[in-house]
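Many introductory courses stop at the sequence. We go one step further.
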Amino acid sequence: ANQWPARPLADWYRTLVIPSAATLMVLLVISWNLKHDGAMAPLPYLPLLNPLDLTTGFVLMLGAGVLRQLSDLAVPHTGLRQLRLAGLVGAYIWFNLILLRSASHYLDIDYRLADLAASQVVQAMLSLVWSASALVLMRMAARLVMRRSWWTGAAMLGVVVLKLFVIDLDNSGSMARVVSFVGVGLLLLLVGYFAPYPKSAQRTPPAAPA
């Protein structure tokens, strides 16, 4: 608003100070998410309502506001589209970390990659969540004729199928393995029915001259 304390350097604040501070906060949040399990002793752990997830959510909102502010400026900024895409990917990674932290607390597993990866329940949960995410993405891409997004969802499904046979298949005889295979199979059927490959939009033929 060109008021104190930004005046008379409002553009400098918009283009340098605030984006730099937001970048620093994003880096801090990434470090915290990788190192901490979100515990808030002596209070019980609650997904999204612990200090770590609340801080991460506010930082993502701040990042979205900074990108919107930069896009509204008269001077075009290169790379804003890539930053938005990175923000969406980061939000999805955060969602997966919330699932892993919840599994760590409720299944009594240490919040370490090796211990979480060794859990059959965690592997089944990730397979189902990734398949459901791919279904949602491919469904949206089919409706909006976004072929690149559809192929991104298809790639996610390919990763899930490869994971099923490389990792989940080793959990022979476990209920988690059965749930994982059956759930992913059903989601694949839903993809074929609800999210087929998007065809090019039909063009309306020009009206005949009167």
